[in-house]
């Protein structure tokens, strides 16, 4: 994967430190994206007096884990936003759970106390950009790599997708919400993220190396 003249990482080096980094390996910083869509009709009806949990397994996470995740959140004093990306039809009969195919992920993360995702960089980095801890449930190798780094930085917890249960979800969520250290670590990572502008770094790389 790194057998090229240059290797560019869409990550902050503080989160993904390399012991031996060649000069041709360059950290651009996090690349953030969210769909430019209108929020769901229930967006302004959410009760924000309770912790908000944003759940999104993305396009490559195991969306079949979503029912177990939601079952784990059922009896907790939280509000849940769950995005399905149109990959799973689920019927929810819980008045504290809001579902939609798509939501503006950056705004959802900004309002949240915790983000649950596959652990991949796209949604997990949205959370850290807002200083919000992450519960990552990876199933793909790249998701394990990014979520392992996030857990090592103290910004969240990793649960293995292959052995996930509702009880494990409930325990992990309670642990994160009850321990200020996760939020404090995520806030520190928010500052790290703010020091990067991936677009500017990429343009600078092009101007310096490809003219």
Spans where pLDDT lies below 50 across 5 or more residues: none
Overall 3D shape = globular
Spatial gap, N to C terminus? 24 Å
Let me know the largest β-sheet: 6 strands, parallel
Class per helix and strand makeup = alpha/beta
Order of helices and strands: EEEHEEHEHEHEHHH
Q: Average pLDDT, to the nearest integer?
A: 91
- The level of helicity is 25-40%
The number of E-state strands comes to: 8
The oligomeric status of these chains comes to: single chain
Number of helices: 7
Strand order of the largest sheet: 5-4-3-6-7-8
C-alpha Rg (nearest Å): 18 Å
Strand content: 5-15%
Describe this structure as you would to a colleague:
By secondary structure, the chain is of the alpha/beta class. It has helices at 66-73, 105-111, 121-129, 141-152, 166-178, 180-194, 198-209; strands spanning 7-9, 25-27, 52-56, 79-83, 97-100, 114-117, 134-136, 156-158. It is globular, with a radius of gyration of 18 Å.
Helix/strand layout:
Elements: E1 7-9, E2 25-27, E3 52-56, H1 66-73, E4 79-83, E5 97-100, H2 105-111, E6 114-117, H3 121-129, E7 134-136, H4 141-152, E8 156-158, H5 166-178, H6 180-194, H7 198-209
Parallel strand pairs: 1-2, 3-4, 3-6, 4-5, 6-7, 7-8
């Amino acid at each position: 994967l790194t057998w090229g003249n240059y290797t560019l990482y869409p990550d902050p080096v503080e989160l993904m430190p390399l012991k031996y980094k060649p000069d041709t390996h360059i950290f651009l910083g996090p690349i953030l994206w969210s769909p430019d869509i209108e929020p769901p009709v229930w967006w302004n009806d959410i009760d924000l007096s309770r912790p908000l949990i944003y759940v999104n397994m993305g396009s490559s996470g195991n969306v079949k884990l979503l029912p177990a995740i939601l079952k784990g959140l059922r009896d907790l004093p939280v509000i849940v936003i769950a995005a399905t990306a149109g990959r799973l039809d689920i019927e929810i009969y819980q008045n504290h759970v809001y579902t939609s195919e798509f939501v503006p992920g950056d705004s959802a993360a900004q309002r949240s106390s915790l983000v649950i995702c596959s652990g991949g960089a796209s949604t997990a980095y949205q959370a850290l950009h807002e200083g919000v801890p992450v519960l990552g449930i990876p199933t793909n190798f790249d998701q394990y790599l990014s979520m392992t780094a996030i857990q090592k930085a103290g910004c969240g917890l990793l649960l293995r997708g292959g052995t996930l249960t509702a009880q494990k979800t409930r325990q992990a969520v309670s642990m994160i919400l009850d321990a200020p250290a996760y939020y404090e670590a995520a806030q520190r990572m928010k500052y790290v993220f703010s020091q990067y502008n991936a677009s500017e770094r990429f343009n600078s790389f092009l101007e310096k190396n490809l003219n």
